[in-house]
């Protein structure tokens, strides 16, 4: 057990929606005009989604404490 209540606190999620080699072909003018629906483009172009998208990626490290006691006579 690494912490008192055995909790895994997520500090980051996986943000890559597609594989790193996947690319979406788009019209640059539509991109700058804000007229693109990326989900629709991904469906039309058969771009695979990464299965780890929006899943927990990093967790808080376990906390540790040290106590020192010294006896002198």
Structural write-up:
The chain is α+β, with helices and mostly antiparallel strands. It has a domain at 10-58. 0% of the residues are buried. The mean pLDDT is 85. It has a two-stranded antiparallel sheet. The protein has helices at residues 28-33, 38-44; strands at residues 10-13, 56-59. The longest helix has 7 residues, at 38-44.
Encode the helix/strand succession as letters. Answer: EHHE
| Helical run tally | 2
Q: Count all strands and give the number.
A: 2
Shape verdict: rod-shaped
Mean pLDDT: 85
Order of the strands making up the biggest sheet: 1-2
Which structural class best describes the helix and strand composition?
Answer: alpha+beta
Percent strand equals: 5-15%
Largest sheet: 2 strands, antiparallel
**Share of helix, binned:** 10-25%
* Head-to-tail CA distance between termini: 37 Å
List the keywords:
single chain, alpha+beta, two-stranded antiparallel sheet, 11% strand, rod-shaped
Concise synopsis of the structure shown:
It contains two helices and two strands; from the N terminus they run βααβ. With 73 residues, it is α+β, with helices and mostly antiparallel strands.
């Amino acid at each position: 057990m690494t912490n008192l209540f055995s909790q895994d606190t997520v500090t980051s999620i996986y943000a890559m929606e597609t594989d790193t080699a996947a690319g979406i072909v788009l019209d640059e003018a539509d991109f700058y005009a804000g007229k693109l629906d990326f989900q629709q483009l991904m469906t039309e172009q058969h771009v695979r989604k990464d299965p780890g998208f929006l899943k927990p990626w990093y967790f808080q490290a376990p906390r540790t404490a040290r106590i020192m006691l010294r006896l002198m006579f």
